Amino acid sequence: MAEQYKTLHSAKYYRDYLKNDIRPDCRQLSAFRPVIINVDSIKTADGSAIVKIGRTTVVCGIKAEICRPKPETPRQGFLVPNVDLPPLCSSKFKSGPPSDQAQVLTQIIADILENSRCINLEQLCIFPDKIAWCLYADIICLDYDGSLIDACALALISCLKVVTLPEVEYDPGLDKQQVNLEKRSPLNISCTFVATTFAIFDDKLILSDPSSEEENLSAGTLTVVTSDEELCYMHKPGGSPLNEEQITKFISICFFKLSVILRNIATY
Amino acid sequence: MNRVVVGNYYLPGEIIKDIKSKDRETIIGPGLCRCEEDANCLVASQAGYLCFRSPNTYWLESRNNRYVPKKTDLVVGIITKKSGDTLRVDLGSAESASLSMLAFEGATKKIKPDVNIGDIVYAKVLNAHKEMEPELVCIDQYYKAGRLGVLPNNGFLINTNQKLTQMLLNAENPLLRTLGRQFPYEIVVGVNGKIWFRANQTKEMLTLCKMFEEAKNQSDQVITNICRQLK
Amino acid sequence: MEVDTLKEENNIDRLKCDLGLLSRPDGSALFTEGQTVVLAALYGPVEVKMQKVLVEKASIECIYKPKAGFPCVQDRFKESFIKNICETSLAVSLYPRSTILVNIQEMQNHGQLLSCAINAACMACLDSGIDMKFLFGSVSCFLMKDGELSLIPPVNESSIKGMFVFVFNNTKGEVIASHTEGLFTAEQYHDALEGGRQMGVAAYVKRGTRSPFVCHLSLSERRGGTRRHDNDMLLPLRPELGDHPGYRAMFF
């Protein structure tokens, strides 16, 4: 019976649960889903991470290539994130060129990366104006169940922390490079960012870490990205209007979550 | 008829307080919607001047560029498709309207009117609801055509805005009368912003065409003044 | 008369808007914020494509065209951002099974592109006469390296530490959308939010101190639907139909 009720009146079904301060998946309104991070499981990549937030599963792999730096930034390498939402992860996505949502997500992840300044691109330069590392960070969603920005950001930062790059010797006179695959060194990541998504249900109820169902039913989402002591992204694309007190509350929740996640990341 | 009172200028989202009602009822027209928080308030959903007719009717006089069909509107449309017994008519609205072949005067299953794709019709909106496609008829409730029906081929159709057509349809507007004193012409004004007309000479047709183009950008008062000069 | 109202507030004089420049779209607006210029045009509600049809509301499509070159991933982001804002503020449930097309053309970029594009979109919606739940206005706020906040983009780009774009509604002045660049603290975010609301958009979205371009609209309405504005407006883009000598000759 509940199943039919849920299909026919999904919003009302949720409202009935939320009235009693509980969500259909037995979470409190402000509770987060369990997060699992698994790093370096893909041996062919230079660094990898798998992140699960509830059922949302995201894989991030970083592949390093040697390329020539841009003439305008001769001392910098590249870090190119790309988010892929294959038809595998949800029936919402079709095969073919990247969907609008995937492109928007790629842009958001690139923005977060740039804003947080967690990686100094100069460390990717091997020899100025000649050769540099280009890191392709491919983020693939395997299972789509909401809060995708959170999962992608977490996968990317965990992945960046475990990337190791082989040593390269470059002779500018001969224009020759020698890669020493045995000797690898990690990147210097200056900060850790954590994204937290909230959904606004019925203009007033706040659901932390929404599932895809909750995202669909709610009138807008808000994503806050915190990095150490500071904020590096406040993304609210339309949806229900919010006032200041609500935003303050969000920020404090985010800093709390950041501390929890940091403690977890620190263990590996 | 009660006098229309024109009030303040409102923008979408602004709240109109202290509305009058009769027997706890208020009639609201285009551009307004009910305020959810306070029963005695309205919310503007378009930009325009608030109009009020006693005892309890409110609407917002705004500029609407895209036609949204309303029941009983008299419209001018172009036949775009013919499939079986129904015709599709383009009114300039989001969805094309349907017009039955049987909705013409004297039409039966056997005797069908001579309507072709590209013809222009003057019709009445029988049904209009946001969830359904609009339906047109070319007959009145007594099955008579009156002035409705297919318009002759030697006319000319122009697309203007709804503001101009409303202005032309106002009985007090002098423009059409003044023009009529200069030369004879025939005109059909649809509230959907389409105007069909014909005159004896091409020159006169062009004059009409340019007059409407000009009138579109002028206020009522300017037009009245110019018309006065013409007399 | 517009010039006087423009000068009233320091930041408002950087805003200009010209409505109804284009004849084909249902609503159009040229919005200028300082040196940033964006042209927006709205078609709608129009017929919907089969794969995009929504039975309970109108689907909104936003197309963003950069000044030069093809739209890239960044522009997709802007499209989706503006589309979401329009979805929130337009009364989409009144137009089921139809599409509302919002076209944004970047003309000049001087730092406040996103907020200018959002304002242009709002003005185009207003000009088209489509039903809206509320108006929205956007403001960009720049955070300098020395911690100061400014609503005007600084001449020296390297002195910017962060940028905030806020979108407010005109009913309660609440935040309907937010976008940020750079690192900042929670206090700075609040200061920017408060500052943005007070100095920038509030004047335009709140009643009473209505800003020049909304004044413009009401003035033009008062003039009986004239959609041409006085010569103090900026670009010579405006179709001068009524002023053409040929028309005058025809008329008298």
Automatic annotation (TrEMBL), chain A:
<feature type="domain" description="Exoribonuclease phosphorolytic">
    <location>
        <begin position="193"/>
        <end position="251"/>
    </location>
</feature>
<dbReference type="InterPro" id="IPR027408">
    <property type="entry name" value="PNPase/RNase_PH_dom_sf"/>
</dbReference>
<keyword id="KW-0539">Nucleus</keyword>
<dbReference type="InterPro" id="IPR050590">
    <property type="entry name" value="Exosome_comp_Rrp42_subfam"/>
</dbReference>
<keyword id="KW-0698">rRNA processing</keyword>
<dbReference type="GO" id="GO:0071028">
    <property type="term" value="P:nuclear mRNA surveillance"/>
</dbReference>
<dbReference type="InterPro" id="IPR036345">
    <property type="entry name" value="ExoRNase_PH_dom2_sf"/>
</dbReference>
<dbReference type="GO" id="GO:0000467">
    <property type="term" value="P:exonucleolytic trimming to generate mature 3'-end of 5.8S rRNA from tricistronic rRNA transcript (SSU-rRNA, 5.8S rRNA, LSU-rRNA)"/>
</dbReference>
<dbReference type="GO" id="GO:0005730">
    <property type="term" value="C:nucleolus"/>
</dbReference>
<comment type="similarity">
    <text>Belongs to the RNase PH family.</text>
</comment>
<keyword id="KW-0963">Cytoplasm</keyword>
<dbReference type="GO" id="GO:0071038">
    <property type="term" value="P:TRAMP-dependent tRNA surveillance pathway"/>
</dbReference>
<dbReference type="InterPro" id="IPR001247">
    <property type="entry name" value="ExoRNase_PH_dom1"/>
</dbReference>
<keyword id="KW-0694">RNA-binding</keyword>
<dbReference type="GO" id="GO:0071035">
    <property type="term" value="P:nuclear polyadenylation-dependent rRNA catabolic process"/>
</dbReference>
From TrEMBL, chain B:
<feature type="domain" description="K Homology">
    <location>
        <begin position="155"/>
        <end position="202"/>
    </location>
</feature>
<dbReference type="GO" id="GO:0010468">
    <property type="term" value="P:regulation of gene expression"/>
</dbReference>
<dbReference type="GO" id="GO:0000467">
    <property type="term" value="P:exonucleolytic trimming to generate mature 3'-end of 5.8S rRNA from tricistronic rRNA transcript (SSU-rRNA, 5.8S rRNA, LSU-rRNA)"/>
</dbReference>
<keyword id="KW-0539">Nucleus</keyword>
<protein>
    <recommendedName>
        <fullName>Ribosomal RNA-processing protein 40</fullName>
    </recommendedName>
</protein>
<dbReference type="GO" id="GO:0071034">
    <property type="term" value="P:CUT catabolic process"/>
</dbReference>
<keyword id="KW-0963">Cytoplasm</keyword>
<keyword id="KW-0694">RNA-binding</keyword>
<dbReference type="Pfam" id="PF21262">
    <property type="entry name" value="RRP40_S1"/>
</dbReference>
<dbReference type="InterPro" id="IPR036612">
    <property type="entry name" value="KH_dom_type_1_sf"/>
</dbReference>
<dbReference type="GO" id="GO:0003723">
    <property type="term" value="F:RNA binding"/>
</dbReference>
<dbReference type="GO" id="GO:0071038">
    <property type="term" value="P:TRAMP-dependent tRNA surveillance pathway"/>
</dbReference>
<dbReference type="Pfam" id="PF15985">
    <property type="entry name" value="KH_6"/>
</dbReference>
<dbReference type="GO" id="GO:0071051">
    <property type="term" value="P:poly(A)-dependent snoRNA 3'-end processing"/>
</dbReference>
<dbReference type="InterPro" id="IPR037319">
    <property type="entry name" value="Rrp40_S1"/>
</dbReference>
From TrEMBL, chain C:
<dbReference type="GO" id="GO:0000177">
    <property type="term" value="C:cytoplasmic exosome (RNase complex)"/>
</dbReference>
<comment type="similarity">
    <text>Belongs to the RNase PH family.</text>
</comment>
<dbReference type="InterPro" id="IPR020568">
    <property type="entry name" value="Ribosomal_Su5_D2-typ_SF"/>
</dbReference>
<dbReference type="Pfam" id="PF01138">
    <property type="entry name" value="RNase_PH"/>
</dbReference>
<dbReference type="InterPro" id="IPR027408">
    <property type="entry name" value="PNPase/RNase_PH_dom_sf"/>
</dbReference>
<dbReference type="InterPro" id="IPR036345">
    <property type="entry name" value="ExoRNase_PH_dom2_sf"/>
</dbReference>
<keyword id="KW-0698">rRNA processing</keyword>
<keyword id="KW-0539">Nucleus</keyword>
<protein>
    <recommendedName>
        <fullName>Exoribonuclease phosphorolytic domain-containing protein</fullName>
    </recommendedName>
</protein>
<dbReference type="GO" id="GO:0005730">
    <property type="term" value="C:nucleolus"/>
</dbReference>
<feature type="domain" description="Exoribonuclease phosphorolytic">
    <location>
        <begin position="15"/>
        <end position="130"/>
    </location>
</feature>
<dbReference type="InterPro" id="IPR001247">
    <property type="entry name" value="ExoRNase_PH_dom1"/>
</dbReference>
<dbReference type="GO" id="GO:0071051">
    <property type="term" value="P:poly(A)-dependent snoRNA 3'-end processing"/>
</dbReference>
<dbReference type="GO" id="GO:0034475">
    <property type="term" value="P:U4 snRNA 3'-end processing"/>
</dbReference>
<keyword id="KW-0271">Exosome</keyword>
